[in-house]
Amino acid sequence: MRENGPKRQVTGTLVKVLVHRRDDRGMSLEPFASRCVRAGEIHELVTTTHDDTAPGAVIDHVGFLGFAEIDRAGVIDRGDEVRIGSELVGTVLGFDACHFPNHYNILIHSTRTITGAEAALRPEQEVRFSGRW
Q1: pLDDT of 85 higher than 70
Q2: What does the alpha-carbon distance between residue 68 and residue 108 come to, in Å, rounded to a whole number?
Q3: Are the C-beta atoms of 69 and 41 separated by less than 8 Å?
Q4: Residue 112 in 3-state DSSP?
Q5: How many CA atoms lie within 13 A of 52 on its CB side?
Q6: pLDDT tens digits, residue range 36-61?
Q7: Residue 129: which of 46, 8, 41 has the closest Cα?
Q8: Closest CA to 128 of 70, 48, 78
Q9: Is 91 helix (H, G, I), strand (E, B) or coil?
Q10: Which residues, at least 6 apart from 37, have a Cβ–Cβ distance to it below 8 Å?
Q11: 60: CB partners within 8 A, 6+ apart
């Protein structure tokens, strides 16, 4: 059964750059393949090489990119491409809610765990989540 059709792009602005990584983080993948985000919310962007999308999968190997404020509300789906500035960071793997309702950790599958410093990120860069339908 096909559930997803076209959607608008969710955009945001990087508000804080993070510079650390962990190999023992213990995040837990939420069972949801999508989350609605509202304008003004702030969520954390986290890279991982993990690729298992099973609910509850443990995510240990992570690189922290930073926090982004959502400028344009919408739906972020597993598989969405994530770009910061003009650079493709990876695709949304899923969500960890250990800090919710303060914020979600948006887990981004990448070929390697990268940090905000390694990606030369800076506050005020545009963040985009785009579906590929």
Answers
A1: yes
A2: 13
A3: yes
A4: coil
A5: 11
A6: 999 999 999 999 999 999 999 999 99
A7: 8
A8: 70
A9: strand
A10: 10, 43, 70, 73, 74, 75, 76, 104
A11: 22, 23, 24, 25, 26, 27, 50
